[in-house]
C-alpha cells in the first residue's frame, strides 16, 4: 500500500479546508477500522472501493445534501437508499470521474454549479489498461 499513513482517533489533521478535515475524520471512523479489523479485515481492492464510495456517497448525498454520482456501490446499498418515488437515491455509475458531489441550478435547467468533491480512485500507479497498451 505504499506511503499510506493510518489515521488514528485524536490525530491532528493538518489541512486548510474544513470539508477535507470532515471527510478524513468520517472515513477514519467508518471505513479504515473495517479495513484493518482484527476479525474481518477488508483486503480485496474492489470491496475497499465499495466501502469507501458508499461512505462518501452517504456523506455527500445525505449529510451535505449534494447530488452524487458514484460507481462501485453495492446492490444492497442501492436497495437500502431510495427516494420518495422508490427509485435509488444515488446514481451508480461514473460521470467523468469515479465519484462526484455536485450542486446544480434547477431554475434554468441542468447546470452544475459546484463540485466540492471529485474522486478518481486507483489503488496502484498503473491501471490494467496500461499493460494492454504497452503490449500492443
Specify Rg, calculated over alpha carbons: 17 Å
Mean pLDDT: 83
Number of structurally distinct domains: 1
Low-pLDDT windows of residues: none
Helix content: 25-40%
Strand order of the largest sheet: 2-1-3-4
CA-to-CA gap between the ends?
A: 29 Å
Q: Biggest β-sheet: count, sense, barrel?
A: 4 strands, mixed
Overall shape? globular
Strand content: 15-25%
Characterize the structure shown:
The chain is an alpha+beta fold. The protein has one domain (18-135). It is 38% helix and 16% strand. Strands 2-1-3-4 form a four-stranded mixed beta sheet, with helices on one face. Helix 1 runs antiparallel to helix 2. The two termini are 29 Å apart. 15% of the residues are buried.
Amino acid at each position: 500500500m505504499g506511503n499510506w499513513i493510518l489515521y488514528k482517533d485524536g490525530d491532528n489533521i493538518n489541512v486548510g479546508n474544513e470539508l477535507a478535515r470532515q471527510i478524513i475524520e468520517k472515513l477514519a471512523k467508518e471505513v479504515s477500522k473495517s479495513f484493518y479489523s482484527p476479525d474481518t479485515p477488508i483486503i480485496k481492492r474492489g470491496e475497499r472501493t465499495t466501502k469507501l464510495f458508499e461512505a462518501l456517497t452517504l456523506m455527500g448525498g445525505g449529510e451535505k445534501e449534494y447530488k452524487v454520482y458514484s460507481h462501485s456501490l453495492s446492490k444492497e446499498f442501492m436497495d437500502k437508499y431510495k427516494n420518495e418515488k422508490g427509485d435509488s437515491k444515488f446514481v451508480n455509475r461514473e460521470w467523468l470521474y469515479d465519484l462526484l458531489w455536485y450542486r446544480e441550478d434547477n431554475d434554468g435547467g441542468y447546470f452544475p454549479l459546484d463540485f466540492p468533491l471529485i474522486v478518481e480512485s486507483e489503488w496502484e500507479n498503473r491501471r490494467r489498461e496500461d499493460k494492454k497498451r504497452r503490449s500492443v
